[in-house]
Predict the 3D structure of the following.
Amino acid sequence: MGKGEAGGKPPRQEGLLNFIETNFPHLLPLVQEGGPKLFKKAFLLSFWVEGYDIPPRKIFPFFPFLEKGKEERGDLVVEQLSKAAGALRQKDPKLFETIVEEIEREEGTFPEVWKLLEGKPVIDIFRQESLLPSVLKEAFERLLGDREVEKEMASLSPPGGFQPPPGTSGLAARHREMIETLRDYAALQKNIHSLKRRDASPPKTSRNGNPSMSGT
């Protein structure tokens, strides 16, 4: 595992390797085969795609070591990686979060994951995303100004599921803030549309030239 290398490994990498070695030792060959950096990305994205019901084979091109052998083998590996990631998120949320942050900083990660969401309604992505800040931010920005989903914005509610403990970055809190912003935006747009309709329909006048009281 390279633990004896001079200077040691960064704490977050050492922490992940220790976790895998202790709890999921059957995944250690993947660390050795793909290297810690690629392993962490596969570890995280395996968990992420499961949340969207994206077929495991969709991420095989990113990780050559998943494509070796039969496709069923790759599916099983993704399932085990996802299970390990879910366990780490529960056991050590801060370590899990540092891995998320590290993977998100890698150039090319966001285009790869966003491409996997092709065909999914943006508002559904926004409702569901609870892991990758970049995906949540992109969905939020695309929703702003989208006239077709304004009514749905008004009914948005915070997602359920995992709630990070105090001391983490609080993606769930940012998600709630975005929901409130979209609700306010939808309400504002509704008022604007209502005013425009009123302006387009001036009050009728009676025969003597005074405003008609009919309909009031």
Q: What stands out?
A: The chain has ten helices and no strands. The CA atoms of residues 4 and 14 lie 11 Å apart.
